[in-house]
Write a structure and sequence with these properties.
Layout (H helix, E strand, L loop, with lengths): L18 E10 L7 E9 L10 E6 L4 E6 L1 H16 L1 H20 L10 H12 L1
């Protein structure tokens, strides 16, 4: 089953922004190692239109990108909250559990658990193989 959609896509002209200081890191994609994700932070130079300082946070890959303009301490608090969440016992235990389920699913075709596996997607995939 396919859904056809139409979209109007506008390409924006890139705009160079002078930076006072910045940092960019590149991380490999979690599922496809040939893909990269870039995360960049910077403080832009002051301009007549934006005389107050701010901080930019940019996440991009080959297909999409997103900007966030904020204050450094707000960005730091938000990112620290994410780090704390990723370091929490609940997330670590859930990650370990889903890795075990993934291993069993890939290697042994063992069990399907609705809490960790998108059953509707698996059922549609199975139905498509028999059509």
């Amino acid at each position: 089953m396919y859904v056809k959609s139409k979209a109007f896509i506008s390409q924006l002209k890139p705009h160079w922004q002078h930076k006072v200081v910045g940092r960019k890191i590149t991380m490999k994609d979690g599922l496809e190692p040939r893909f990269n994700n870039d995360i960049t932070i910077w403080i832009p130079k002051l301009t007549p239109r934006y005389p107050e300082p701010c901080c930019f946070f940019h996440v991009a890959n080959k297909q999409s990108s997103a900007f966030l303009r904020t204050r450094p301490h707000l960005l730091q608090n938000g990112l620290q909250d994410l780090v704390n969440t990723l370091s929490s016992d609940k997330w670590i235990e859930t990650w370990d559990r889903i890795q075990d389920i993934s291993y069993e699913l890939i290697n042994n075709d063992l069990f399907l658990d609705d809490n960790y596996i998108d059953m509707d997607l698996f059922n549609r995939n199975i139905e498509a193989k028999f059509e």
